[in-house]
Amino acid sequence: IVCIRTRQTQPFNFMSHGTRDYNPKQMAIREKVFNTIIRCFKRHGAETIDTPVFELKETLTGKYGEDSKLIYDLKDQGGELLSLRYDLTVPFARYLAMNKITNIKRYHIAKVYRRDNPAMTRGRYREFYQCDFDIAGQYDAMIPDAECLKIVHEILNELDLGDFRIKVNDRRILDGMFAVCGVPDDKFRTICSTVDKLDKMSWEDVKKEMVNEKGLSEEAADQIGEYVSMQGGMDLAERLLQDHKMSQSKQACAGLSDIKLLFKYLQLFHVTDKVVFDLSLARGLDYYTGVIYEAVLTQASAVSAANEAQNCANAEESVSVGSVAGGGRYDGLVGMFDPKGRRVPCVGVSIGIERIFSIMEQKAEASPEKVRTTEVQIMVASAQKNLLEERLQLISELWNAGIKAEVMYKKNPKLLSQLQYCEEAGIPLVAILGEQELKDGVVKLRVVATREEVDISRADLISEIKRRTEA
Amino acid sequence: IVCIRTRQTQPFNFMSHGTRDYNPKQMAIREKVFNTIIRCFKRHGAETIDTPVFELKETLTGKYGEDSKLIYDLKDQGGELLSLRYDLTVPFARYLAMNKITNIKRYHIAKVYRRDNPAMTRGRYREFYQCDFDIAGQYDAMIPDAECLKIVHEILNELDLGDFRIKVNDRRILDGMFAVCGVPDDKFRTICSTVDKLDKMSWEDVKKEMVNEKGLSEEAADQIGEYVSMQGGMDLAERLLQDHKMSQSKQACAGLSDIKLLFKYLQLFHVTDKVVFDLSLARGLDYYTGVIYEAVLTQASAVSAANEAQNCANAEESVSVGSVAGGGRYDGLVGMFDPKGRRVPCVGVSIGIERIFSIMEQKAEASPEKVRTTEVQIMVASAQKNLLEERLQLISELWNAGIKAEVMYKKNPKLLSQLQYCEEAGIPLVAILGEQELKDGVVKLRVVATREEVDISRADLISEIKRRTEA
């Protein structure tokens, strides 16, 4: 279904590869999803900020590791080298440093840009929304971190996307693990990037990349392989704290203790049913320094989306069931922008909204209920000719009273075509003007669904419309 | 005041020239303005769409006349030549043609990009929002056009920015006027661009540009000068229809008849008090084909903004009092994107939101009332040590019940610092936990403003919070 629709709405090439328009129906769905997410962010007391779509190129340099090649640059048209933002986290850190802000809880919903291979049927575009929530400030361990996971839990529950899991790990555990497995210090980040591919590649292929491309010893790779197959809860963290190899790393122990603390807070929030401590979770970005997490859909809706992708695009695209949220702690990023290197610890989460949109769209597509794209309460219509002026006068009164109303832009529209328009657009009421009604000082109010008609005096019209449509 | 604040928040150069961040306070104001505008657009039955921030360069080519040099291009990083959108109108026309849409009423609120000389104290940036409302479709003359002006009237009234005027003219009247004044056909557009500068330059300077730079005869310029000094209402349109020179132009007559019709509809909408037929209004863009309009603030708030600009930046910036909305009819634009040249007549209006923001910001600055940046209803606090777990448990219950709540991210925060936070953030209630309250199964509810404290049972807490904060 998605394939056919995509072809229909994009018949000739007038757009950049990997971008799309949102039509009114898609926007109505998008608005609903955004409202759910914003409501959650506001419930947790977040303020919001906005930053420009482009930043100085140097602001983005050295923040994204191997992904930096995907940054869109602007043409040098005089003086400044500019790039489109790649995420909302780096601009946030730049904002904090620039304004010397040491404490803030903010959300930011905006588009970001990546010159990636688009997989549009799976909701992967070169221009896409991110919905970020971050807490900056020097606080006691794991309290804000736990709130971020609570937020993911609330949003995914409320959006009703089916079952999900939130995987949790810690960069310090990964680094400690790399150290005790014999990975040289200067290879931590690149090996970490390879581990990150475990959600899309088999362990065999990941190992091959480590050994053949990254030059890691087979022995070290095998030891990593053992650890990254581990999943559990607080108990796994406790076990690893006793692990003879892992416990040799101070870093790993710090990470493991924090995972224990995190699980304790998550228990108080009653969300541990969905949270898994998973040592294979690595996250691609360079800037994480502590806890990291990622939410994945595990069931029905996700699978159907994957199947659909398989029909439409190449099979490769449907391997991963898809992350719908991710984030972590990045305590060093703000300091990179401060002339004196002052640190502002941060933790945050980004909701993968595009994937959620495509699932919601498929749901809407499958539902018998029509998505309304306007909230119009009434159409001002006429039953006879030459009543344009009377229609305009009445609709002006309605607008001034705050009623959402439409009128057809024709001097003499047919009554039938006015009624048909209402049926198509889902407008529930019609105010019908005719010579007789004007003489009597009334309006014929027609209920579109039932075809019931009643005469209402002009004085009562507005309250009657409100009564019938603002339930 | 603005100057100082600008300097404080941007202490070192981490941002591109002519761009800015919005802080939480500015965002709260922005949200309020957007809500007013969106409410109006929805009242008039508009759907919304979204388009990408960049378009193929060729989509924008040849649409903006002399302003095309201000378009931001992206670097060629493989294949496509892309540009940042310059307005929302051209992408809208591209969208209609691509999807073969012949009827739509849509609004679009998004950022556009112009490599202009920024005048940031006056709210002029290189990245700025546009709020567009457009009606596409083959309809009877001037009905949708009149609705656009009604919308401008409603929005400017509701935003309460002080007195305003909406100037109206028609491209066909301008073209007819140019023809009867002896302007050569191939100079219509460039002379039109010069006339457009009348709101910023004196007639003498405009005339000089016409004669010296554009090569117009002095006689023709003088004749234009007579016409462009004319202002009036329906009566002026009637008089010009009798004008011996103007009436020789079929085009001018068509425009003048439509202005008459427009005024008739505006009378039905009761908005003629603010509308002036002004022959000096030209609008810069190439794509207009019929009626054009522009709203300007005429009083208090606008003047204060101009004065402020004068103190902060160079004097030149404060000459124009500033347009806050503009638009017109563009019947040829969609056809430029259709392979078969099929025309879709359009009329629309764009609200100059950035200027409105800066006025609203100054108002907020001057007001004794504090702008709240969150909607938090309650803080979950503790009076004694070692109650973090109890606080987390309680706030989790509140979040799950839809209450907007915050907790301090410290194991043992001082009660005083918790209360101070509430005063600063404007949080009206505090739920205070202590050993005794926990034993008694109650929460001490404190009203921040009055310092009143009452014990509320845990079972009644949520309804009590709602009762006190959701008035």
Task: Describe the protein in words.
Chains A, B: Belongs to the class-II aminoacyl-tRNA synthetase family. Chains A, B: Keywords: Aminoacyl-tRNA synthetase, ATP-binding, Ligase, Nucleotide-binding, Protein biosynthesis. Chains A, B: Residues 18-368 form the Aminoacyl-transfer RNA synthetases class-II family profile domain. Chains A, B: L-histidine binds at residues 87-89, 114, 130, 134, 283, 287-288. Chains A, B: One of its GO terms (molecular function) is histidine-tRNA ligase activity. Two copies of one chain form a homodimer. A nine-stranded mixed beta sheet of chain A has the order 1-4-5-11-10-9-6-8-7. A five-stranded mixed beta sheet of chain A has the order 13-12-14-15-16, with helices on both faces. The first copy, chain A, has a two-stranded antiparallel sheet with strand order 2-3. Residues 1-11 and 309-320 of chain A have low confidence and may be disordered. In chain A, helix 2 runs antiparallel to helix 5 and helix 2 (24-43) packs across helix 13 (353-366). The first copy, chain A, has 471 residues and is α+β, with helices and mostly antiparallel strands. Chain A has helices at 2-9, 24-43, 57-60, 89-98, 143-159, 171-180, 188-195, 203-213, 218-228, 234-242, 250-268, 300-312, 353-366, 388-400, 415-425, 435-440, 461-469, and strands at residues 47-48, 54-56, 82-84, 104-113, 127-136, 164-170, 231-232, 275-278, 291-297, 323-329, 346-351, 378-382, 405-407, 429-433, 442-447, 453-457. Chain A is elongated, with a radius of gyration of 28 Å. Chain A has two domains: 2-366, Bira Bifunctional Protein, Domain 2 (BirA Bifunctional Protein, domain 2), CATH 3.30.930; 378-469, Anticodon-binding domain (Rossmann fold), CATH 3.40.50.
